[in-house]
Specification:
Elements (H helix, E strand, L loop, with lengths): L11 E2 L1 H9 L3 E4 L3 H6 L1 E2 L5 E2 L2 H7 L9 E4 L4 H12 L5 E4 L2 H7 L4 E2 L22 E3 L6 E3 L22
Parallel strand pairs: 1-6, 2-4, 2-5, 5-6
Antiparallel strand pairs: 3-7, 8-9
Length: about 170
């Protein structure tokens, strides 16, 4: 019989705190897939690519005695990976909220085919603005609901998520 394991709330950190943690020796673990990283990547020394599709088989490669900051495109997959590692007994883990998009919007180092100024917008990198529910905002690096779209939907561009996700 499977016993239920109650996990504490995952720790989330912003990109600025992530940079500080990296300077203090934390390991940045990117759980995006290889094709995504080829398009746009974190330009920091020692970043470890461990795609979500490989995490279950490879997680034992991750050190348990070092702070791990998990990242992805917008923070959703890395949060799932964070909880997976917590379930496996990892205690020094954090999720970087907002993912690569928020990192890029802060002007932090990125590299890859889409590393130009437009890469900091979710639309340019194929994020939430690439959906039918959202369009790029005219004067911002975020999205606004498309005409006729439900502005209260749980997308990263909805008013309900303006304090987190892409806004």
């Amino acid at each position: 019989m499977n016993a239920r394991v109650d996990l504490p709330q995952a720790r989330e950190v912003c990109p600025t705190t992530t940079r500080r943690l990296l300077a203090e020796g934390a390991l940045l673990v990117d759980v995006r897939e290889i094709a995504e990283v080829a398009q746009l990547a974190f330009d920091v020394p020692g970043v470890l690519l461990m795609p979500m599709s490989e995490l279950e088989q490879r997680f034992a490669e991750l050190p348990r005695d070092r702070e791990l900051v998990l990242v992805c495109q917008v923070g959703t997959r890395s949060l799932k990976a964070n909880y997976f590692l917590m379930y496996q007994g990892y205690t020094k883990v954090a999720n970087m909220e907002g993912g690569l998009f928020k990192w890029a919007r802060k002007g932090f180092p990125i590299k890859g085919a889409r590393a130009g100024a437009s890469a900091s917008t979710p639309a340019a990198a194929g994020g939430c603005c690439g959906t039918a529910a959202a369009v790029p905002a005219a004067a911002a690096s975020c999205c606004e609901p498309a005409p006729g779209a439900d502005a209260t939907a749980g997308t990263c561009c909805s008013p309900a998520s303006a304090g987190g996700g892409c806004c």
